[in-house]
UniProtKB/TrEMBL annotation:
<keyword id="KW-0378">Hydrolase</keyword>
<protein>
    <submittedName>
        <fullName>Phosphoserine phosphatase 1</fullName>
        <ecNumber>3.1.3.3</ecNumber>
    </submittedName>
</protein>
<dbReference type="InterPro" id="IPR050275">
    <property type="entry name" value="PGM_Phosphatase"/>
</dbReference>
<feature type="region of interest" description="Disordered">
    <location>
        <begin position="175"/>
        <end position="196"/>
    </location>
</feature>
<dbReference type="InterPro" id="IPR029033">
    <property type="entry name" value="His_PPase_superfam"/>
</dbReference>
<dbReference type="InterPro" id="IPR013078">
    <property type="entry name" value="His_Pase_superF_clade-1"/>
</dbReference>
<dbReference type="GO" id="GO:0005737">
    <property type="term" value="C:cytoplasm"/>
</dbReference>
<dbReference type="Pfam" id="PF00300">
    <property type="entry name" value="His_Phos_1"/>
</dbReference>
<dbReference type="GO" id="GO:0016791">
    <property type="term" value="F:phosphatase activity"/>
</dbReference>
Length: 209
């Protein structure tokens, strides 16, 4: 958990859903609706326990099944009903969805490398680019920034959109893609970011993004 303090105390707890079978298999998920695996459910329970003590004011979730399952556990722990927001729909990975990352690297090495190194320059076939999703994400963050002046707002969303949100909030360079965070064969979930969370300041200069 990374903590960034603000003078007014408002924060966003950016939560990645627990693992799914696709995460464990190293497959690209995008907008596919995949439920949490047994490992993912265990990760979420552990994550909820680690969030005890935070002043949670709201729990927002991506429409994906894994995100909603994760959000429900967190919401129950803090006595909050979850709010599903279409603006948090993950980046559509088009024809890449469901494929193993290694398959993409083998069949389209140049495109895969460009996606890993410069994701902002690539749009998956029949999918969305990072530029495509920025307006809806920026609009949601601005609304939250105006509405919440204190406490912590939970946002549950998977990578690569989680990285886009973290980048906007932290004012960093373009985020790394889902592919760069894909699991390896020896440790299928450890490096995927599943069930992880970052505590970020609810502050962003949207006009500069």
């Amino acid at each position: 958990m990374k903590i960034y303090d603000r003078a007014d105390g408002s924060k966003i707890l950016l939560v990645r859903p627990g693992a799914t079978e696709f995460d464990e298999q190293g497959r690209i998920i995008g907008t596919l609706d995949i439920p949490l695996s047994e490992l993912g459910l265990a990760q979420v329970e552990e994550l909820a326990e680690s969030s005890v003590g935070l002043d949670i004011k709201a729990v927002l979730s991506s429409p994906s099944l894994a995100a909603q399952q994760t959000a429900e556990v967190l919401g129950k722990k803090h006595g909050r009903k979850i709010k599903v927001r279409n603006a948090l729909r993950n980046i559509d990975m088009g024809l890449w969805q469901g494929k193993e990352l290694e398959e993409l690297r083998a069949n389209q090495p140049k495109v895969a490398r460009q996606w890993e190194d410069h994701p902002e320059t690539v749009c998956p076939p029949e999918g969305e680019s990072i530029e495509d999703v920025l307006p809806r994400v920026q609009k949601l963050l601005l609304k939250l920034q105006k509405k919440h002046r204190a406490g912590t707002i939970v946002i549950v969303v998977a990578d690569p959109l989680a990285k886009v949100i973290a980048s906007l909030l932290s004012q960093q360079a373009a985020p790394e893609p889902e592919a760069a965070a894909a699991p390896d064969k020896d440790s299928p979930v450890e490096h995927s970011g599943c069930g992880k969370m970052d505590l970020l300041p609810l502050s962003v200069e949207l006009a500069d993004v």
